[in-house]
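Example record

One chain of 430 residues, shown exactly as stored in the release files.
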Amino acid sequence: MVSWKMIRNLAASCLAFIVMLYLTGCTNKDNLTGNNWSGVTVQTIVDSTCFSDDCATGNGGFSFPSEGKIGGLESALLCGKWDGVEAEALMRFTGIPQDFYIPGGAYQDSCWLELTLVKRSPAGRNPLELSLSKLNQVWRADSTALVLDENIHPLNQPAFTVPDSVSTYGTVVKIPLAASDLENWREGWEDVADTLGFSMVITSSDGAYGEILSRESGRGPRLRFNYKAPDDTTLYKYESRAFVDSYRADYETAPVLENRWVLSNIAPSRLYVNFNLNYDLFVDPAGNILSEKDRKRATINKAELILYLKDNDYYGSEIQYYLWTDWLREHLDLDPAIAIPEGKISSGLETASALVTGDRVVVNITPIVQAFASGDEDIDSPGDQPFGVIIRSRHEMLRFGKMEFWHFDDPDTPVNKMPRLVIKYTPPFL
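Predicted structure tokens for this chain:
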């Protein structure tokens, strides 16, 4: 039988437990993991001296190329002749009738190719003019490098000038098509045209580029025209999005650049960044340097690399950048700099996606710093020092554009543009 005394003792125990939870749950706003009564507060380290070639890999930072591959499922079709890159958009339309004619003159309001552009080269430099050609060749979206120039035949129409202003949400343009080009779409291609459809290639003028939404976006290229069949007075309409689309690109492989940080989307270029973790900067709220044991028990609330822009003519107040950070889990001799093999890189995390509104880009490396600061047993690193991180753009082979950042070993780098490592951490309470 349960006595009243037992009930009172149980109630008192529950009340004490609730009070303890309340006290430990009252956290200071400036302390993401601590509490008001322990005196443990978040500490901040800002270090611009940690970048040096005197590090675990013998190299504190450089740029190197990666292999760019067009997979055929990109959200944008690139078209341009810009900064050493020549790209052409390809698209195929199927279900076009064999024998038909387009009543009226050479150009009809009903005959056009609709494209949705989301980015174009700066209008103040050169006009963006798009020219159309017919492609008589079998091709696949993931192997457009096999398309031969000899199978591309210009259509009978003038180049189309893209408006100076293009919205990032999509600006729709309609390129008029000559009736004869549509009526004779099977010419030189009769044996297989009915099966493979009507393929077109879009090229741009020199010193300009455009980015066109692909079918993967749901707003890909659309072909439309009205027609009549022989001996039939009925007016029919053909209207269809591209059955398949892609692009091909010709460019020189990006070089390995010592003492430069260049991030590029086409002719992909990545950053290697290394830094020394100065564990003497890890202190408790009283300013005492944490012992190795306490440092390994500290919580890294946030760790960020801050890189300052040296050159950026693409990303701005409308186009977000997306960065991905990988890391080396083992030692690699990087003196001199090399193109780091994919097999040496451990997949990391998406670290940044934001608009460039100032002169810097912030890269989140919290889990990486936590792993080394806590002495992860799976990482064989003398002195718990990192082997470096690899920063790449999530827009590789998806967009034009690149960014260059001030390098710590560039003699022209202003003092206030030196890269920084910012770490916010909470020392252990007990």
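Notes: The chain has two domains: 28-66+254-426, 76-250.
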